[in-house]
Every structure is written in structure tokens, then in C-alpha cells.
Amino acid sequence: MYYRRMGELPRKRHVQFRKEDGTLYREQVMGTKGFSGTQSILYHHHMPTAVAKASIASSCKVEFEENKELSHRHFRTKAYRETGDAVNGRHFLLGNEDLLIGVVNPTENMNDFYRNGNGDEMLFIHHGSGKIETMFGTISYRSGDYVVIPIGTIYRVLPDEGDSKFLVVEANSQITTPRRYRNEYGQLLEHSPFCERDIRGPEVLKTHNEKGEFTVLTKSRGALHKHVLQHHPLDVAGWDGYLYPWIFNIEDFEPITGRIHQPPPVHQTFEGHNFVVCSFVPRLYDYHPEAIPAPYYHSNVNSDEMLYYVEGNFMSRKGVEEESITLHPSGIPHGPHPGKVEASIGKKETIELAVMIDTFRPLKIVQHAQDLEDTQYMYSWI
Ligand SMILES: [Fe+2]
Fold first, then answer.
1. Counting C-beta atoms within 10 Å of the first and last residue's C-beta, which end of the chain has fewer, N or C?
2. How far is the CA of 363 from the centre of ligand 1 (A)?
3. Is the same domain home to 284 and 164?
């Protein structure tokens, strides 16, 4: 990310910055990796440390299945119809030590504020629109958006009316653009499939100075902690730096194509610790006269592959539908369904839209994900 600023700031950092009544704003340096990662400096009306009451709201422990044979898996998440707010309504399906993956159908405004104290979150907006109020300002979202919310950011999601569906990734690390697409100054390079112009930050900084009783739920150390504040948590009058929520829309991903089949890394969009996020978008197919546009069978040694199907006819698969999730684990090969290789020959383009997450440690299945499972998927290549 690159430098942004919003609201009022003193001319220099760490000097007196006073409100109209002469009292001091409270400066907060919020950064990652100690003091060596990206950071921002925020100026609050109230001390961000002022908490009237702390308690544990609930456990966040996720139960994973055990003793299951190694197999390809398919979950129809369309069948999950429960609604709720964007945090409490999360239904986790897969996870490991590095991330949790789930879905949510948010139809309700969040009453409480929330922050993830473990790592960054990524919300892929499949359906719906709305806004997210954060301590860095308000950011609007629409379908196709990847919303990245940094660790520690206090926020709440206010969806517009109607159906909505998000794919949710909670990481234990920072989610950022691929390192190979950035130069030594952090600028996105010419061969990157997107650039800074495609990235949106908060649009408006609304400073709330009201007092009252406000709840901030913090996810950390296996629990959701409830902190009651006596001031509005979105009380920032100004901030600047490199750490803030941002959005990239999948429509702005410019596909990299070639004469023969391009490997999955050309679809890479983001990376976190031990995982990558890729975007499969509508694109022209390979143009070698003898090209096979469908992928070859592959063993993604040392990585599990999760695909979330967004739209279109996914070129190498049968039987999956929109909102399906497939998991192709490391240890066994995966690839196109019978007939799909032949069917791809001579095709000029694909309109598929999908989000892929490859993890470098095995993904485990959350126990209740089995309720959404197509148990015959493993045998669908016969
Ligand atoms: Fe693959």
C-alpha cells in the first residue's frame, strides 16, 4: 500500500496537536511487525486505551473433523441460508494455523464494533453492497470487491437492503499484494495485473466525538472479548500512513494470457503468510494452434487448493455451481473432469470468475461443513 492521509494532522509527528478547546488529541501509532512494518498515525479525541469494562463474550474455537480419508471435497455453500451481521453470522468451513475461511450472508447492521486482533481480514463481496465504517473512515463496497481490513482496525459493516454473500478470510498475518509485483519502493510494477489506481481507500472520515456506552468486540487468543468504552470508538480526527482498509475489485484484475497454458501464479492477486489468493477472471484462451486451454493434471506439492466459484462456467469442472467451494488437497493430484480437456480445445475465451486460495499448510475441514458437502465429488472423475 502507499501513503494516504485524511482529516486534520499536525505539521510534524509526535508534537502537540490540540483541539479547539486547547486539550490534546491522543496520538496512536498503529503498525505491524513491531515498528518495522507498515504503519499509520491516528489522532483520537479520546484515549484509545480507555476501557470501562472488559469481559469474554464468547469462545471462537473451531472444531475440525478428524480421521477422514484424503480426498477432494466439494461444499455447496449456497445451501447455507442463515443470515446475520457480517461478523456474528460467519460460518467457517476450512482453516489451519494461518487462516480461517468461511462465508456469511450479512443482512443486518452490526450493532457493536469489532476488530480482529489476530491478523488481517479479507472480505470478498460475491453479492451485495453497503458501507464499512472504520476508524480510518468509511469505505463503500459492491460485488466483486476484495475488502482488506488490517489487524486492529475497529469497524462495523452496514449492508444495503437485499441479499448479500461474502467469502471471508481471517488471516493470522498481513494480507498484501504479491512481493514480485512491487519494486524496491513498494510501487506496483508494469507487469503487475493491477496498479495503485485500481485500489480504493476510505472515502470519508467522519469523526464521532459523542460519549455514551459503546461495545468493541476484539477477536484474539481463541475468544471474542467485549470491551465497553465510554466514548465512540470512531473518534479519529485525522490519520496518515500506509496502514488502512482498502479495496480492489476483481473486475480490475487484468489477466495474463499466453500461447500455451499459463501456470496458476499468473492469477495471483494477494499473499499472506503461508497462503496466496488468486483471481480467475474472464480472459482469452491460449493461442498456440495446438494449445489445450484446460489445465494439465497437477499435484500442487506442498499446497492445498481451495476454489470459490463466483460466476460463469468453470472450464475444468463439472457439477460445481455458483458459491461452491472445492478443496483439492496436497498429496494427491487434481485436474479437469472427464471431457473437459477435449471440450476446451479450439475455444477462444472463458467467462469464468472464481477466487482461489492456495495454502502452504494443509487445510482442515470444520465439522459442520459436512452438512453442505457433495460426498460424491471425490469419485466424479470416474
Ligand atoms: Fe490446481
1. C
2. 15
3. no
